[in-house]
Amino acid sequence: SLYVSEYFSQSAQKLSFYSWYGNAKLFHFHVPEDTVLLRWLLQASRGKGPECTDMEITVHFRYGAPPVINPLGTRFPANATIRPSYNISITLSSAVQNTTFVNITTPAAGDWFIAAHLPEAAGRIEVKGFSTPCPYIFQADMFVLRLTDMPVLEPGVAMPQTIVSSAKPLHVKVFVPKHAAGMRFELRSCVTSEQKACAVRVVLGSITLPQSFQRIVTCTGSVNCGLALDSPPWEKWLQIMVESLGTANASVSVEMLASFTACRPGSTSSFLNFSSLSQSQTGPRPGSAGAAGSSTLSTGEASHNASNQRSFCVQNQPIVREDLDVVSVRYRLLNGPSVPVNSLSPTLLLLNLNTGMDSGGSLVVNLLLNKTSVSLANATVVACVSAASPVLSLNATQNCSTAFFQGYPLSVRASSSEAVLIVLYPQTDVWFLSLQLICPKGQGECNAAEAKVTVFAYLTPCFNDCGPYGQCSLLRRHGYLYAGCSCKAGWGGWSCTDDTKAQSVGAQNLATLLLTLSNLMFLPAIAVAVYRYYLVEASVYTYTMFFSTFYHACDQPGVAVMCIMDYDTLQYCDFLGSVVSIWVTILCMSRVKKILKYILFVLGTLLIAMSLQLDRRGVWNMMGPCLFALVIMIAAWVYHGVKRRHCYPSSWKRWVFYLLPGITLAFIAISVYAFMETNENYYYTHSIWHVLVACSVAFLLPPRDKHKKPWAWSKKLTCRYQICQNDREELYAVT
C-alpha cells in the first residue's frame, strides 16, 4: 500500500473571552477521501507581559458543521436538538506556549470544524488605550495520512485479501448506491499463516465527532461472520478496516463480500413534476388545454400510485430547494404543502444541504396534521429527520436511526397536531424527512387510512431572528459564513430565549431614563455659559446634550428604544460633542484672545472630527485634545502670572469655590468612566459620568470679562413703547 501525507494550515487567531458565539474563533478544514489517519496540531501561546495570567483554552471539534457549544450553561430554544460537542482543554500556566496533538483514525471525509475560546468574559467595559489586554494566540494545523490505492470492494463479488501483520490493518472501501435499503458484509475463509485460530476485528464506517457510530464486529475461528446495516449512507464510499488480533508477525488471509438490498421508490412522474413547477410559478391559464391535460394526468397518476403502493418501499414527494439569501433556504413541495401519509410505506422528502455553505444556520421542520384527514382517532404520524440516508422502517421499530446516524424523531396525532424540530448547525449532507402512519393496535387497521400532513421546512441564519432581545450576526471565517445571536438586556441562550438573568421592562425603562435624563445636567452649564456671554460654548453644550440624550435613547438593549436617526450617526455626534465640549471648556479657561480662541475652536473641532472617523473608541481621541488644551491653558496662565507678577487666577475664592471642585469632579468622572463601568452597572455609572462632567463644566467656566455688563433685559429694550408708537404712525401715514 502507498501512503501519502498531506499538511494543511490556517493563520493563527487571537482568542477572546466568551460571551456569545462570535467570540469563538473558528477553523475550517476539509479532510480528503481515503484518509486513514488525521492528526491535529494545536498550538496555543500568550504574551509575556505582567497582565498575562494562567489561562485555560477550550477547543471544540465537530464533523460536518461548526460545533454547537454552551460554555455559559444557558438554555436552548424549545424543540432544538442538543448534542454536546467533543472538546478538550489546553492550559497555559508557567509555559508561554503549549502544543497538543489530537489523533483520529479513519476519519470521515469532508468538512471538519474547530472552535476555540477563552473562559467567560468578566463583563468589564475597558476603554481602548487605558489597559493593555494580554494576547492569547491559537493556531490549528492538520496532518492527514491518505491511502492512494485503497482496494475497492465490488458488491456481490468476493475479494480475497491478506493482512500482513497486526501493526498494518487492511483498508478497503465499498460504494453504497442510492436507494440501498440495507447492506450485509461477510468475512469468510479466514486463515492464518501459523495455522492457528483466526482472530480479526472488522470496523465499518468512519469516525465523526462529537458522536461516532462505527460498527465493530470481532471474528474468531474459521466460522464465517458478518454484519448487517440498515439504511447505509447513500452515494458515499464506506470505509472498512480489518485488523488482525493475533501475533505480530503472523499474516491473515480473508475473503470479503458485500451485498446490498435495493429499495424501490415510488413517486410521481417527471412530467408531472415539471408541470407542477410551472403552474406554481406562473399559474395555469383558465380553460387552457395544458391545464386540462395536467389535471387528467394527475388523476391517472394518483390512481396508478395507489394500485402499486404495496410494491414500493418508500413514496418520494417532489420538492424544490429555493435559495433566498446567505444561509437562507426554503423548501417548496410541488404538489402543495400537504403530503399524504399512509401505513404501507414511508413518505420521503429530500432536503438538500450539501452545498458546503448551509451548515452555518438552523434547519427548521414544522409538521401540522390535518385532523379531518385522519379516519382513526388513535393513529399517529411518526416522522424522522436524518442525514445521509432515510429511515425506511418506521412501521416496524419506530426507531429514528440509520446505519451511522441517530436521527431526530417527530410525531403528530389528533390530540397534538403540531410538531417543530430545530437542527442547530446541520451538518453538510443530504437530509431526509420520513413520515409514516402508525396505529396502536397494529398496521392492519391502518391499511385503508391516510393522513394529510402540512410540511414547512426551511434553513434560516438564526431561529426566530434571535427574538426581540437579540441580534442575528453573520460571521465569516475566510470564505465560510455562519450566523450567531448576540443577546441584550440580560437575555441569553443560543437564540436569546433564556430569561434567567433578563432585565424586567421596568428596569429597562429605568436604565433609559437615567441615561437620557442625566444629560439634562448640562442645563446649568448652558445657563452659566449664556449668563457669562460664552455663547459659542453654550451652543456646543446644547449640541452635546441633545445628541447624547437621543444616542442613549437609541442605544438601549431592550424594548425602551427610540431612534430619531441612524444609530451610527447618533453615536458619532455624541462622541464628537463630548470631546469638543472638553476642548472648548479648557480653551475658554485659558483666557486667550478671542480671535485666537475661535481659531483654535474651529481647528480643534475639525481635527477631532477627523480622528473620531479614524478610531471612534480610541482613548487618545479624548486625551489628545485634553492634553493639548491643558498645555495651552497652562502656558496662558503662566504668561498672565508673569505679566501681573502674581499667581493667576489671583482670587483664592476662585480656586476654592470653583476650580478645585470642578477639577475634583472631572477626575472622579474620568475614574468612573475608565475603571468602574461594567455591562451590569453601565446604566447608572455612565449616568454618573454625565452628571459629573456637566457639573464640572459649570464650575470650571471662567467669569465674564470685566468690561461686559450682566444681562439686563429692561435696558436692552428701553424703547419698546416708542417703537410701537412709531409703527402705528407709519401705518397711519401709509394708509
TrEMBL record:
Identify the GO cellular component terms for this protein: plasma membrane
Sorted UniProt keywords? Cell membrane, Disulfide bond, EGF-like domain, Membrane, Transmembrane, Transmembrane helix
- Primary location recorded for the protein, binned into one broad class: membrane
Q: Where is this region: Disordered?
A: 277-304
Chain ranges passing through the membrane: 510-534, 595-614, 620-639, 655-676, 682-701
Among PROSITE patterns, the record links this protein to: EGF_1, EGF_2, EGF_3
- Localisation: Cell membrane
> Which InterPro entries is this protein grouped with?
EGF (IPR000742), NGX6/PGAP6/MYMK (IPR021910)
Q: Where is the composition biased (Low complexity)?
A: 277-303
Q: How does the UniProt record describe the way this protein sits in the membrane?
A: Multi-pass membrane protein
Q: List the disulfide bonds.
A: C462-C472, C487-C496
EGF-like domain residues are: 458-497
**Family of the protein in this entry:** Belongs to the TMEM8 family.
Q: What is this protein called?
A: TMM8A factor
